[in-house]
Specification:
CATH topology of the largest domain: 2,3-Dihydroxybiphenyl 1,2-Dioxygenase, domain 1
Helix content: 25-40%
Strand content: 15-25%
Number of domains: 2
Structural class: alpha/beta
Largest sheet: 4 strands, mixed
Strand order of the largest sheet: 1-4-3-2
CATH superfamily of the largest domain: 2,3-Dihydroxybiphenyl 1,2-Dioxygenase, domain 1
Distance between the termini: 59 Å
CATH class of the largest domain: Alpha Beta
Number of helices: 4
Length: 193
Amino acid sequence: MHKLQVQGVHHITLTGADRQTSIDFWEGVLGMPFIFDQPNLDDPDEGHLYFDPGDGRLITVFTNEKRKPVHKRTPTDPGCVHHLALNVSHATFSQVAERLDARGIPHSGPKDRGFMDSIYFKDPLGFLIELACYRFEPPRGCSHADVMIEAHRDRVALGDYNIQEKHLAHAIERLVHRTQASLSGDREPKNPY
């Protein structure tokens, strides 16, 4: 027996409102280029809009001209999607609250998540969106996931409640030590002063 090994998210499809509301939100608020448009091949009464969230993957939205924005929180029952988190740079994150306020979009305000900062708000149909900004850059050749697993191990070993910046710093140092060669025979910390 073998696993069905996945290699990343191909796309996420959401149920949107009408076509223009969907374009206005995904491109006009979140800045995702609108790159592809066709009918929903499983329902001729719906459109299927494709947006690039910034990494070349896809967020797609089923639209229907009979669906209008309702602003009521979507269900969070077991089996439902709770929220969608999108990555933003620190420079953008520092502007999110101000830019949402300018549009009159209610939001959570910045939230400290230890390894990232987050802010939450709802799309026009009440689906919760999170804009997240990592507090670290992984070392060359490593991924955010590589840093997170190392930071998790450090957090558990120290008995800390959640991942904090000290765990991230230790994780990055260990990853660099493992992945980057050095001519030094002794790479332990030193104090030359």
